[in-house]
Amino acid sequence: MDFIIELDKIIFKFIHSLSGHSGIIDWLSIFFAEDSRIFMGGLFFLGLVLIYRKYPDKPLYYILVATMIFLLPVMTSAVLREAIMRARPFVTLDITPLIEQSIRYSLPSNHTAASFAIAGMYLAFLKKHFKPVLILAFLVAIARVHTGVHYPLDVTVGAIIGILPGLGLYYQEVTTPDHNEKHSNKHSNNKKLNNKKSNNSKKTLP
Fold it and tell me: Is the CATH code 1.20.144.10 the one for domain 37-183?
């Protein structure tokens, strides 16, 4: 465990040492680290609206499930942080963070857990929008390290906690017989449609 902690500090020092060399990169890092609650929160509520429209038969049920996918990791992260009690890097190391941050415990990163929980919600219910949301969550995690308020291990654990509920629900869905049957029927229908178009094309040839 001591080896992991020391490696974590080495990686942190390297990433944080990249700050202060580019105003644009520092500004972007500050934006993603400090304002993630605004744009990720916006994506959360947008996701709820899209879920409401996607599942008109049971909209409130799916909205409740989506909300729990978000809340469970956030609450878990908050409990673990108080139990582990790891100090922030700017408390134990001789560094100055790029953003103001209250001196609370560091592991896991709650910002990262919340961001990846929202990405997990999109994975479970709105898969075609998942990748851009995941990229934003990843940028939040990197920014929290770059600005000096979290260690890499903090955001890694936060990301795992955040994505797990959505990933579990997605995996459960894709492995159910109903999903496989629907996918098989869709593939079969597409094949029949393509064959029909091919036959029609042959008939129109002189």
Answer: yes
Residue pLDDT, tens place only, 45-61: 999 999 999 999 999 99
Q: How confident is the model at residue 100 (pLDDT cuts 50, 70, 90)?
A: confident
Contacts of 155 (CB under 8 A, 6+ apart): 108, 109, 112, 141, 142, 144, 145
Q: How far is CA 37 from the centre of its chain?
A: 13
